[in-house]
Design a protein that fits this description.
- The chain has 249 residues and is of the alpha/beta class.
- It has a single domain, classed as Aldolase class I (TIM Barrel, Alpha-Beta Barrel), CATH 3.20.20.
- It contains 10 helices and 8 strands.
- The chain has an 8-stranded parallel β-barrel, surrounded by 8 helices.
- The termini are close together.
Length: 249
């Protein structure tokens, strides 16, 4: 099974907002998230991930609808479990929605969604999205309790949070890899597609290749950073080349 790449372009919008936060719709506003999505497609991306946060700190609603309309790739909408974001998802109609935790204080998503602690709420959101033809993923820590809860919610996919793996040093690294291995095995055994994301870069991606059953990686910041040197299309192409070394199941 070929591992897929979902390119997260949130930080293209972050750069634009640094200068045009008060006028993101200005004809002078740049860079363009839509153009980044099209460039990612040229580089071999399999899908585009965008996170429209409640505070609209980077991606704006208009960005989401432009990308959905003009980029042929499947769109994966990261979203909080709220009525506002559910309404947006039903209007946008992305191919995929990934439910994530969200707090205003965080710089980026800092941990997995507590599905077990919010089971009724999360399950209701999953059901609503699925009834409208949207495939749902849950962004969770590689915790067996959370994976079981994800299965109870009827989610078709989970995205294992790799942030702890990415930040681990020395002995912590092997422990985090083992957590991901066990989490991926548990998800696969439950009949759930297993994806992964957060903090993955060009240097540490190889360490994930011991984790079985990974169908897709969602990667953003490192690609945007690399693009400043080699261009967006080439940055995506380079990541795809690295991912080709993942052993097929």
């Amino acid at each position: 099974m070929r591992m897929l790449l979902g390119v997260n372009i949130d930080h293209v919008a972050t750069l634009r907002q640094a200068r045009y936060a008060l006028s993101p719709d200005s004809p002078n506003a740049e860079p363009s998230p839509l153009q980044a999505a099209l460039d990612a497609q040229d580089g071999g991306a399999d899908s585009i991930t965008i996170h429209v946060r409640a505070d609209r700190r980077h991606m704006q609603d208009r960005d989401a609808f432009e990308i959905r309309k003009h980029c042929p790739l499947p769109v994966n909408l990261e979203m909080g479990v709220t009525a506002e974001m559910t309404k947006l998802a039903l209007e946008l109609k992305p191919e995929f929605a990934c439910l994530v935790p969200e707090t205003r204080e965080e710089v980026t998503t800092e941990g997995g969604l507590d599905v077990a602690g919010r089971l009724v709420e999360v399950k209701a959101c999953v059901t609503t999205l699925q009834e409208h033809g949207i495939r749902v993923s849950l962004f969770i820590d590689p915790d067996l309790h959370q994976i079981e809860a994800a299965s109870q919610c009827g989610a078709e996919m989970i995205e294992l949070h790799t942030g702890c793996f990415a930040n681990a040093v020395d002995g912590e690294l092997e422990r985090e890899i083992n957590r991901l291995i066990e989490g991926s095995k548990a998800g696969h055994a439950a009949g759930i597609q297993v994806n992964a994301g957060h903090g993955i870069n060009y240097s540490n991606i190889f360490r994930l290749f011991t984790v079985p059953y990974l169908a897709e990686l969602n990667i953003g910041h490192t690609i945007v950073s690399r693009a400043m040197r080699v261009g967006f299309t080439e940055a995506v192409r380079e990541m795809k080349e690295l991912m080709a070394a993942y052993p097929e199941a």
